C-alpha cells in the first residue's frame, strides 16, 4: 500500500447513537484534518450490534471503512482516533465492552505492521470474525492479504458463516 506518504492506516468507523450519518461525516472530516488524507471510503452499512449488550436492544450501527494516507505513527493515529471519538461524544466504560456509542474508530491495519501491545493491537484481533468489518474491507481492498493470517479480505469474508454479523 504505497501512497507517497509514509503509512497507510485502515480504519473502521461505527456508531449507533444520535444522528449516525452526521457523526460518520464528522468523523471522516476530523480524520482528514488530524490523521491524514482519506484516500478511499467504503459504502456505509447498517449492521446489527455484535456482542453481548445484555438486556438492552440497541439501535443498529452504521459502519464504514476508510483507507487513510498518514505521516503519523500507529500510536499517534490511535491517540488522534480516541480524541475524535471523545469529541463526538464517546464515553468509555469499563462496565461493558459492548455498549451503544456515538462513535467508535478502530485501527484495523497499519501498513503491514503487526503490533501486539496492551494499548494497541494491529491487525485488529477480532476483525476476521466480523462481517461488519470484512464486508467494507473486501469492498475497498479485496486482495489485501492479512499480515498474520495470510488470507485476503475477500477470502476471509467468504469463510464466514452465512449467519455471522
Structure write-up:
The protein has 165 residues and is of the alpha+beta class. It has a single domain (7-124), classed as Alpha-Beta Plaits. Helices cover 28% and strands 24% of the residues. The protein has four helices and seven strands. The strands form two sheets. Strands 1, 2, 3, 4 and 5 form a five-stranded antiparallel sheet that branches. Strand 6 (115-117) and strand 7 (120-122) form a beta hairpin. Helix 1 runs antiparallel to helix 2 and helix 3 (131-140) runs antiparallel to helix 4. The chain is globular and about 35 Å long. The mean pLDDT is 87.
Topology:
Elements: E1 7-15, H1 20-34, E2 37-41, E3 45-47, E4 61-70, H2 74-87, E5 104-110, E6 115-117, E7 120-122, H3 131-140, H4 153-159
Antiparallel strand pairs: 1-4, 1-5, 2-4, 3-4, 6-7
Helix pairs in contact: 1-2, 3-4
What is this structure, in a nutshell?
It contains four helices and seven strands; from the N terminus they run βαβββαβββαα. By secondary structure, the chain is α+β, with helices and mostly antiparallel strands. It has one domain (7-124): 7,8-Dihydro-6-hydroxymethylpterin-pyrophosphokinase HPPK (Alpha-Beta Plaits, 2-Layer Sandwich).
Amino acid at each position: 500500500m504505497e501512497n507517497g506518504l509514509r503509512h497507510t492506516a485502515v480504519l473502521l468507523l461505527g456508531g449507533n447513537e444520535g444522528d449516525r450519518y452526521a457523526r460518520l461525516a464528522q468523523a471522516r472530516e476530523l480524520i482528514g484534518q488530524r490523521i491524514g488524507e482519506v484516500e478511499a471510503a467504503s459504502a456505509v452499512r447498517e449492521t446489527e450490534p455484535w456482542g453481548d449488550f445484555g438486556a438492552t436492544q440497541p439501535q443498529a450501527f452504521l459502519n464504514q471503512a476508510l483507507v487513510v494516507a498518514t505521516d503519523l505513527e500507529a500510536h499517534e493515529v490511535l491517540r488522534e482516533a480516541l480524541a475524535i471519538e471523545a469529541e463526538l461524544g464517546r464515553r468509555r466504560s469499563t462496565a461493558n465492552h459492548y455498549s451503544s456509542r456515538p462513535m467508535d474508530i478502530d485501527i484495523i491495519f497499519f501498513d503491514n505492521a503487526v503490533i501486539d501491545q496492551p494499548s494497541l493491537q494491529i491487525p485488529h484481533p477480532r476483525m476476521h470474525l466480523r462481517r461488519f468489518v470484512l464486508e467494507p474491507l473486501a469492498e475497498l481492498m479485496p486482495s489485501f492479504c492479512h499480515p498474520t493470517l495470510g488470507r485476503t479480505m475477500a477470502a476471509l469474508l467468504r469463510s464466514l458463516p452465512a449467519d455471522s454479523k
